[in-house]
Amino acid sequence: GTYGRLGGDVFGMCVPYEDGAAIYHILEGIRAEIRKHFVHYYLETCAGIYLVDDPDMEVAAMHDNAEIAAAQCKGQYMVHDVLYTEEIGQKVLREQHIIDEMDAALAEQQFIVYFQPKYQLKKMAPYGAEALVRWKRAEGTMVSPGEFIPLFEKDGLIVRLDEYVFRKVCSIQGERIRLGKKILPISVNLSRASIHHDNMICRYVKIVEENGIPFSSVPIELTETAALYNDRISKLIEKMVDAGFELHMDDFGSGYSSMTSLNQLPFDTLKLDKSLIDYIENFRGQQVIRHTISLAHSLGMKVLAEGVEKAKQVEILRSLHCDGIQGFYYARPLPWENFETKVIRAKEACKK
Ligand code: C2E
Ligand code: MG
Ligand code: MG
To answer: Measured by CB atoms within 10 angstroms of the end CB, which terminus of the chain is less buried, N or C?
Structure first.
């Protein structure tokens, strides 16, 4: 066959094969050769394999398919060889479509913000909401953030989407203030890429000021992974607090929980992830939550439980002195009109 370096850390090989096993044999030979040269450190190689079934296909297209397959190894532990399949090709194409549509979707306002109420456990009353973005495509289908946010995060597009959602929420709050209406704080999610983006803090401060709203009306949620304790992020987070923002630590307990992020970063609220709440009825799960709540309280933080779906969970959370809950048990994320009529007006009616 023939082989060579295609650029960066990508190498290409075109090899004739008798059967699939021959390919793995060739790869093992290459890896053994590489190991001989790198005895002092471990070098991991990934292979994307495309088996040619149409000999008339252009070599560049064959190479693209192999490269698509190789990209699937990224971020997967112990996966070193991926064979290109039609399914992988379709998935990558679908993802690329989503990324390509982003600009037009923003211009046509296809991103819609939903609001999920947060309830205070003591008073059993709504005290705020979280803004959650949805994508309503032109043909009417809804795409959930779980599908497009990871793609936008990879591509840096998330920075624009986060700012779009932040602007929307600030303008809703500003409008209510101008009309003399009461406002409830609405938290907004911010991805790690957004914090790193140049001048993010100045831009967000300007948006708050332009809308004439208090900083406390738009708390910012950072996932714990985003709040990871590297020096640069810690400094940025402190700068955000100095600028006036209230910060909530999102998804606590979902993966990279760290004591450092608790004792070094000035968060106002800790949001317990649904994956912790799911085990609240089990002894060990409950102990973890009990002590996390008491630790957070002793550090002066409020605690909000996410993903609460059952009455029993509410009861336990109340007995553990959790401050707030957010979950399908009380309300799903709602479009603004429903949120305004059902939640804000209901709260105002309670006060009268
Ligand atoms: P998150 O910030 O942790 O938001 C909570 C997610 O849990 C929401 O999913 C919400 O609908 C869901 N949820 C709430 N209560 C329950 C429940 O009782 N049961 C279950 N099964 N789920 C519940 P959603 O809206 O699909 O958002 C997923 C994630 O996407 C969010 O997780 C957040 O990380 C991200 N996201 C959403 N909007 C934005 C945004 O504007 N910017 C950024 N960067 N991320 C966003
Ligand atoms: Mg959140
Ligand atoms: Mg969360």
So the answer is: C
